[in-house]
Write a structure and sequence with these properties.
The complex is a heterodimer of chains A (about 400) and B (about 280). In chain A, about 60% of the residues lie in helices and about 5% in strands. By secondary structure, chain A is mainly alpha-helical. Chain A has two domains: about 90 residues, no CATH class; about 220 residues, MetI-like fold (Orthogonal Bundle). In chain A, strands 2-1-3 form a three-stranded antiparallel sheet. Chain A starts with 11 loop residues before the first helix and ends with a helix. The mean pLDDT of chain A is about 90. Chain B has a domain of about 190 residues: Rossmann fold (3-Layer(aba) Sandwich), CATH 3.40.50. In chain B, the strands form two sheets. Chain B has a six-stranded mixed sheet with strand order 6-7-8-3-9-10, with helices on both faces. A four-stranded antiparallel sheet of chain B has the order 2-1-4-5, covered by helices on one side. In chain B, a hairpin with a 2-residue loop joins strand 1 and strand 2. In chain B, helix 4 packs parallel to helix 7 and helix 7 runs parallel beside helix 8. The N terminus of chain B is likely disordered. At the A-B interface, helix 10 and helix 11 of A face helix 3, helix 4 and helix 7 of B.
């Protein structure tokens, strides 16, 4: 019997087809591999640079609240350790003594952070003079210097001393800014989308509005910063550098994203649901409130979270409205000067001192962790409440 | 209302178009009460005319079937009867539709109110993604016809019973309506329509998305509902029209070609086009 189905190996046309297919597949796999390798390289680099910032070296030292320390805290440190103990650890001693005179003349032993260059040396990132190296090594061998988890990185604000600098004030700033953005952009965005999608007649005007909203989403963010500067600061006198002006500016930027994603979510609600409700004698608003909105809410929330995540990573427009500032104390209201996480990263990145390199990377890690959490929440919401018809 | 004679069973070889001009005195004495009637109804989608001079009476407590090939305008006409076409932009309507002497296209008519008198069931079952109970209780609560919990409980029960669904779902009123089978969903939609206590129920191919068994159940239900409601049903299925409808109107190219009591229309059509359609020569 002649077999007709196995002759393709000899058919040049079919062989060429298979060759082309495997070549295309190889290209695709290469592309995927390159993309994946870039991501892995990025994360590896950031994490390897930044993880050390989550630890810090501390030294056990006896602080002597003597007469000279009443004026300059540094004199509380034993003379041979003044090169090693962080100045930041003792700068509040004069104030402590003033507030509580009973402290004068006493002494206490406690663990305090070391000077950032010593910290960097212990992490293998910086060279020290040989004499100092010997002293530090001896202290470490004697157990006087230890390495602990750097809680201060999460609980304190920015500082000019790298060993004391933390992300707390920037995180609070980011939170306040996002709250303002949400309160400003969510209701306006959702309402606009509902009107455009459910109520507006389809005419030239609404089409023009639609096109412009879509364009707005593609406007470079720095333009929104200029708009925020001109409108909120110059016209309405909103305090410069405040979370309020930052939030409003990012709100302008987030608005089109929320409108577009809300409209997509509303459009995803099948028409038979609307028709069924209309046929029951619902008014348009009742149809929207009782049927369309409950079904599209997960989609709306997903879009909003993604919009907020994008706003949270934004720096350029905030530079324009003065939110790139040195903020050691966390703001307590939206009217106070504040900075945000990406701006803090930017500030640290422009510091010349070596010890700020790991701070920068650690700031990026925290920012990425928050953004990934936000996006994961969005994906989770979408999966959980997704309906199919 | 003087033009409402045209779809009686009065004898004569005249076409339906001519019958419109026949005198009221010729109206058959046994003619049942007219519930809704369309006269000289024209409808345009933008510049395209979809309905031409439609004249049709729909009798109280009768089933009127609208048949015809796809795109003939029968669904469009059905949606004129509860003004669902209002939702489509660029629809323009001329002529009038009377519901017991009231023109439903009169500017003073409230569409929301009209739709509580003229309910609708769609081709694809479209229960709300809410519980079975909520599907039915929603509209009465909205319209204030059922307010207390016990009133609503009664209404839900009676509506489901009339729709022949009560025995199947009585013990799971809290499950989503969307989890029922297709046939059950469609009966739920019918129950939902009944709960508003309408006088007319419009059905747009209510069984076309269902399997034969579910179709039979729905058809039986239509038969029972006929005793209390005026039903207008669009169907592609000629056998279905023959089974459920007392009167049938044949639509073609946006016009009513012929309308008569179902038996006569199917066994003794007066128009060649009707005969061609019901014998399957086109459609």
């Amino acid at each position: 019997m002649q077999r007709r189905l196995t002759g393709s190996a000899n058919d040049p046309l079919i062989r060429a087809r298979y060759r082309r297919e495997s070549r295309f597949k190889a290209y695709s796999i290469t592309a995927l591999f390159v993309a994946f390798a870039i991501i892995v390289a990025f994360f590896t680099d950031i994490i390897s640079q930044g993880y050390s910032a989550f630890w810090r070296a501390e030294i056990e030292v006896t602080l002597d609240y003597n007469e000279r320390a009443e004026r300059i805290g540094r004199f509380a440190i034993p003379e041979d350790l003044r090169e090693i103990v962080s100045r930041g650890a003792v700068r509040s001693i004069p104030l402590q003594i003033r507030n509580n005179p009973a402290l004068a003349g006493t002494s206490r032993t406690e663990w305090v952070p070391v000077y950032s260059r010593i910290d960097q040396y212990l992490k293998g990132k910086e060279e020290l003079p040989p004499a100092l190296v010997r002293q530090v090594d001896e202290l470490k061998a004697a157990g006087v210097i230890r390495t602990t988890f750097n809680w201060a990185f999460f609980t304190s604000g920015d500082s000019k001393l790298p060993e004391l600098a933390g992300i707390f004030s920037a995180a609070v700033g980011s939170l306040l800014v996002l709250a303002v953005t949400l309160v400003f952009a969510f209701p306006i965005g959702v309402m606009s989308a509902i009107y455009l999608e459910e109520f507006a007649p389809d005419n030239k005007l609404t089409q023009a509005i639609e096109v412009n909203i879509n364009n707005l989403a593609a406007v470079p963010s720095i333009i929104f910063g200029l708009l925020g500067l001109a409108v909120f600061i110059n016209t309405f006198g909103v305090p410069r550098s405040s979370a309020l002006v930052g939030g409003l500016t990012l709100g302008l930027m987030t608005l089109p994203i929320i409108i577009i994603s809300t409209r997509a979510a509303l459009r995803a609600v099948p028409d038979p649901i609307r028709l069924g409700a209309f046929a029951m004698g619902c008014s348009r608003w009742q149809v929207v409130r009782d049927h369309v909105l409950p079904l599209s809410l997960p989609g709306i929330l997903t879009g909003t979270i993604i919009g907020l995540a994008q706003a949270m990573g934004e720096t350029a427009p905030l530079i324009i409205v003065g939110m790139i500032a040195y903020i050691p104390e966390a703001p307590t209201s939206i009217f106070e000067s504040a900075t945000v996480l990406p701006a803090q990263v930017f500030t640290w990145a422009s510091e010349p001192r070596k010890a700020f390199v790991e701070k920068t990377a650690a700031g990026i890690i925290v920012l990425l962790a928050i953004l990934l959490t936000l996006n994961a929440t969005a994906v989770f919401l979408r999966r959980k409440f997704e309906r199919r018809w | 209302m003087e033009t409402e004679v045209k779809n009686t069973t009065s004898a004569g070889a005249a076409t339906m178009a001519q019958k419109v001009e026949t005198l009221p005195s010729e109206r058959q004495t046994a003619t049942p009460e007219v519930k809704m009637s369309a006269s000289d109804l024209n409808l345009w989608y933008g510049d395209t005319q979809a309905l031409h001079d439609i004249n049709l009476d729909m009798y109280a407590r009768e089933v009127t079937a609208l048949i015809g090939p796809s795109g003939c305008g029968k669904s469009t006409f059905l949606r004129c009867l509860n003004r669902m076409n209002d939702l489509i932009p660029q629809v323009h309507i001329k002529g009038n539709v009377m519901l017991e002497g009231e023109d439903i296209y009169d500017p003073s008519v409230d569409v929301v109110q009209l739709r509580t008198f003229v309910g609708m069931v769609f081709q694809k079952p479209n229960p709300f993604p809410k519980s079975i109970y909520e599907n039915i209780a929603y509209a009465p609560r909205l319209h204030g016809t059922g307010t207390s919990r016990s009133e609503l409980d009664d209404l839900v029960e009676s509506s489901l019973k009339r729709a022949g669904l009560w025995n199947e779902v009585a013990d799971r009123l809290d499950t989503p309506g969307t989890e029922l089978s297709g046939g059950q969903q469609q009966r739920l939609c019918i129950a939902r329509a009944i709960a508003v206590n309408p006088e007319v129920i419009l059905m747009d191919e209510p069984a076309s998305a269902l399997d034969p068994l579910a179709t039979a159940t729905v058809e039986e239900l239509i038969h029972e509902l006929k005793d209390n409601y005026t039903i207008v049903i669009v169907t592609h299925n000629l056998q279905q029209a023959a089974r459920v409808a007392g009167y049938t109107a044949f639509f073609h190219m946006g016009r009513i070609v012929e309308v008569n009591d179902t038996d006569t229309l199917f066994t003794n059509p007066k128009e060649q086009r009707t005969e061609d359609y019901i014998t399957g020569r086109f459609g």
